[in-house]
Amino acid sequence: MPTVTEVKQRIETGIPGAQAEVSSDDEVHFTARVVASNFAGLSLVEQHRIVYSIFDEGELGGSIHALALTTETQ
Amino acid sequence: MTDQPDNPLRETLADAISSNEVILFMKGTPEQPMCGFSARVCAALTATETQFAAVDVLADPRIRQELSSLSNWPTIPQLFVHGELVGGADIVGQMYESGELAAVLGAPATSAAEPLPESAAPGSAPPLQIENRLS
């Protein structure tokens, strides 16, 4: 089961220059706010897809039961 | 996983997405959502007085699998408007609060979005039953 620190590190490693604030009460349901200049010009769907793509198939909805996500350009 | 050359379920899903102006793939039904995220999207649509078709992905696990590979979106719910994926619960919630959702839906603009209730109000639109062509 991933920890808050692991989820944060994976997002920040997966998206160069990104800053992620990650929290979780149970390490199954996560909340993440991701700020990345890479998101500029992308729709919210495209921004979220970038974050989702960091995780393995089946991981979202699996060991990470839910990832409540907010993305921002700056 | 590679695409099956003949995939009636995927065709049915693609057809449902293109032939319904607003369609929500969710867990449960608008009357009885089985997941808080699905309930939130229903509540946002109801609050914007939008008629929408709803598909319960829990009816068959293959729906969710095919939908996610079709839409390139891993989670449920998924809201489509005019054939385009608008987003999941987070995006729809954010767009509802900003008023963008009403604009996308072509609903009359409201002065300020009311905060969504914790649980969804019963939906006014009947859920769409997509034809189950699976054996």
Greatest contact between two chains: A-B, 14 and 14 residues
Q: Summarize the amount of helix of chain A as a percent range.
A: 25-40%
Portion in beta strands of chain B: 5-15%
What is the CA-CA span between the terminal residues of chain B? 21 Å
Helix content of chain B: 25-40%
Overall body shape of chain A: globular
SSE string of chain A, helices as H and strands as E: HEEHE
| Beta strands of chain B, count | 4
Indicate the low-confidence ranges of chain A by residue numbers: none
The major pleated sheet of chain B works out as: 4 strands, mixed
The rounded Rg of chain B comes to: 14 Å
Determine the mean pLDDT of chain B: 85
What structural class should be given to the helix and strand makeup of chain B? Answer: alpha+beta
Give the strand line-up of the largest sheet of chain B: 2-1-3-4
Globally, the shape of chain B reads: globular
Whole-number mean pLDDT of chain A: 94
Strand segment count of chain A? 3
Calculate the terminal CA-CA distance of chain A, rounded to whole Å.
30 Å
Rg of chain A, Cα atoms, Å: 11 Å
Kindly name the structural category of chain A: alpha+beta
Largest β sheet strand count, sense and barrel closure of chain A? 3 strands, mixed
Task: Give your account of this protein's structure.
The complex is a heterodimer of chains A (74) and B (135). Chain A has 74 residues and is of the alpha+beta class. Helix content of chain A is 30%, strand content 27%. In chain A, strands 1-2-3 form a three-stranded mixed sheet. Chain B is of the alpha+beta class and 135 residues long. Chain B contains five helices and four strands, in the order αβαβαββαα. In chain B, strands 2-1-3-4 form a four-stranded mixed sheet, sandwiched between helices. Mean pLDDT of chain B is 85; it is low at 119-127. Chains A and B meet through helix 2 and strand 3 of A and strand 4 and helix 4 of B.
